[in-house]
Amino acid sequence: MARKKIALIGSGMIGGTLAHLCALKRLGDIVLFDVVEGLPQGKALDLLEAGPIEGFDCRIVGTNKYDDIEGADVCIVTAGLPRKPGMSRDDLLQVNTKIMVEVASNIRDRAPDAFVIVITNPLDAMVTCMHRITRFPKQRVVGQAGVLDSARYRAFVAMELGVSVDSVQAIVLGGHGDDMVPVRSYCHVAGIPVERLIAPERLDAIEARVRQAGGEIVNLLKISAYYSPAHAAIQMAEAYLLDRKQILPCAALLEGEYGVNGFFVGVPVLIGGRGVERVIEIDLSPAERKAFDASVAHVRELVQAMEKFLPAT
Ligand code: TXD
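# TXD complex -> structure
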């Protein structure tokens, strides 16, 4: 059986971390692509030279040529500009749409059977753009935001209680903006509803921190988070490659579910060997539903703004 081929489009901070994780987890052969000359080649060589120490023996190639992604099984897209301090994710819309159109056209032509995970911001608009250009079945295009945002929620709840993150389950839904929706009614600690363990005002503060968590890192690092987004995307890639049937909060194309039609929003989905195999609809409290609808309205506006930058068909 041939190894799987994983193409990483964008070899910056997240792209490089993705390659590192793919190698350590032995997910397949790796192609690092970037428009900057030397960057993907340098990262590929550096990582290859770690192989003898860690015992991974996959092929790792760095390239500036799209031909090298030919036949990829999984494409993970981080190409684009990241946020600088003071910028919102939406500020990236025009420049990153242009990049996403180019990336999507190349994936469509060279890796027509790939499962595509988009990470580039503004996430919900970029993954919608990827789907519009590739016209891949909706099962094979997905956006990473919810796994990370939920991990942040879990980490903060675990810190508050002094318990292992392993014991905390949580989901964050909606768009990947500051109006994302940490769903308190589905947050549990070893099966115990979080509201029984943490006072409402502390939970308000934790959820506010979750919503601002990306900005908190940007303010410290002056660049975006990269370890955690990469781990999140790798969990999704593994669910697909290993047919794990994991339920993960991801940006998926909704066609009527949650009352949304025609664009990508973060909801719980089941990922297995056929990609996004199912969208799972959950009941929300009236306040959560209101917050979800507000977040969806924001995504809708962003998608409409993105559409203006799409090439005429
Ligand atoms: O959870 C999430 N979805 C996110 C998303 C969490 C954190 C950061 N998130 C976004 O991911 C961030 O706002 C950016 O839009 C992307 C990638 O973030 P990263 O930190 O990896 O940015 P880098 O280090 O700048 O890497 C981007 C690379 C860089 O090497 C550029 O040269 C390259 O993208 N780039 C391109 N590659 C291919 N093709 C084109 N046209 C191109 N343009 C730039």
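# post-check
The domain at 5-143 is CATH 3.40.50.720 (Rossmann fold).
Residues 9-15, 34-36, 39, 78-83, 92, 96, 99, 102-103, 119-121, 123, 144-145, 148, 176, 223-226, 229 surround TXD (CB under 6 Å).
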